[in-house]
Amino acid sequence: MKDLLRYLASFKFWKELFIMTLGMMIAAAAVYYFMIPSKLVLGSISGLSIVISNLFGMAGIQVKVSVVVMAINAILLIMAWLLIGKEFGAKTVYTAMILGPMLELWEKILPYEKLIEPGMNSVMGEPLLDLVCFVLVVSISQTILFRINASTGGLDILAKIVNKYLHFDIGLSVTVAGAIICCTAFLINPFRMVVTGLVGTWLNGLAIDYFTASLNKRKRVCIISKDYEQIRKYIVETLNRGCSLYEVKGGYSGEVNIEIQTLLTQEEFGNLMNMIRKRNIPAFITAGNVSEIYGLWNNQKHHKTRKVRHKTDLPD
């Protein structure tokens, strides 16, 4: 109990609460301004619920879509808690709860009817443009939430399960989960609508991968220099990053040197290059982008606490 109270009073908790609220505001805007007016049907829990509700109706049993949505979300939240983790499950419960109020908030702030021009039936006036705008905006929201081990609920929970157990990229996981749901719409919807949903789900996965790669992008830096000790000390003592040293032999000169390899953020890489230029250190440097890092790599927030972890932090 004390650990929980300590965590609730920590900066990490309030920062992530703000990020989750902001992420859901973005997601709600995408749904309210682009999905609802144009009646887009994508691979989502709402789409699956519509299919199930219609199938029950064909069997003579009337079940509201809202009831099916609640039932599926309840099952998915339990799955998130058991299969992904308590932190992810708790955060997703919060995001799922605030989606409805966020939609009402946007309706009060700026009703979409005011943005629809006469003679048009959607904000953008073209289904394809509405689809693209919805995918881009909701993908930003999903990327923000996935980054802090949360989600918008529904389809994202399935995507996270696929990501964890099948080790697909998160964007591909969203595409796979959404495509499966989209295909169930063949039971009630015309071919054209189902294909539109599949295209939208595919674009959603691509956008998530793009935004995720952009947010997670780091520089893999390789430096060969006779003054490698200066560079090593700057990386370790000033940037608080680790590095590896390798003995390399030049293929042309046959000269033996030391190569330093390290992973840095874009800002840290810029600082390192400025230091090398100011001190006139002769060096051969190559750098490439890395979008995924696993293992013992310190995040920016852990720079000052590399050796001692905050007791208020939950396990990453």
Description:
By secondary structure, the protein is an alpha+beta fold. The chain folds into 2 domains: 2-215, no CATH class; 218-290, 2-Layer Sandwich (Alpha-Beta Plaits), CATH 3.30.70.120. 60% of the residues lie in helices and 9% in strands. It is built from 11 helices and 4 strands, in the order H-H-H-H-H-H-H-H-H-E-H-E-E-H-E. It has a 4-stranded antiparallel sheet. A hairpin with a 6-residue loop joins strand 2 (244-249) and strand 3 (256-264). The longest helix has 28 residues, at 11-38. It is elongated and about 80 Å long. 29% of the residues are buried. Residues 300-316 have low confidence and may be disordered.
Q: Which sequence of strands runs across the widest sheet?
A: 2-3-1-4
Tally the structural domains.
2
Q: What is the overall silhouette?
A: elongated
Level of helix content?
55-70%
User: Helical stretch count?
Assistant: 11
Largest sheet: 4 strands, antiparallel
**Rg, nearest Å:** 24 Å
Number of strands: 4
Average pLDDT rating: 79
N-C termini distance: 20 Å
N-to-C order of helices and strands: HHHHHHHHHEHEEHE
Feature tags:
about 325 residues; alpha+beta; Alpha-Beta Plaits; 2 domains; 4-stranded antiparallel beta sheet; about 10% strand; disordered C terminus
What would a concise description of this structure say?
The protein is α+β, with helices and mostly antiparallel strands and about 325 residues long.
Task: Map the helices and strands.
Elements (H helix, E strand, L loop, with lengths): L1 H7 L2 H28 L6 H14 L6 H20 L1 H24 L17 H21 L7 H12 L3 H15 L6 H26 L1 E7 L3 H11 L5 E6 L6 E9 L1 H13 L5 E7 L26
Antiparallel strand pairs: 1-3, 1-4, 2-3
